[in-house]
Design a protein that fits this description.
Helix content is 65%, strand content 0%. By secondary structure, the protein is mostly helical. The protein has one domain. Helix 1 runs antiparallel to helix 2.
């Protein structure tokens, strides 16, 4: 049980890192120095899907961590 939870948490963490890196908000250092405008726009298509999957994976990561804390 503990081993399977560890594996699930590692896979979730790796996927979460990949999803966060795939999001293109503020691309690179150019956004730090004003390269990107501050125009609000809604997320659509793939960008919205990545955003929702990031939230889902972060929730799964926290829940698995809490379950491991209770089991130990």
């Amino acid at each position: 049980m503990k081993l399977s939870l560890n594996i699930v948490e590692l896979v979730t963490a790796a996927l979460l890192v990949i999803l966060v890196l795939m999001q293109n908000k503020g691309v690179g250092l150019s956004a730090t120095f004003g390269g990107e405008g501050s125009i609000y726009r809604s997320k659509r298509g793939v960008e919205k899907g990545l955003f929702v999957m990031t939230i889902v994976l972060a929730s799964v990561f926290v829940i698995v961590g809490l379950v491991q804390l209770v089991i130990k």
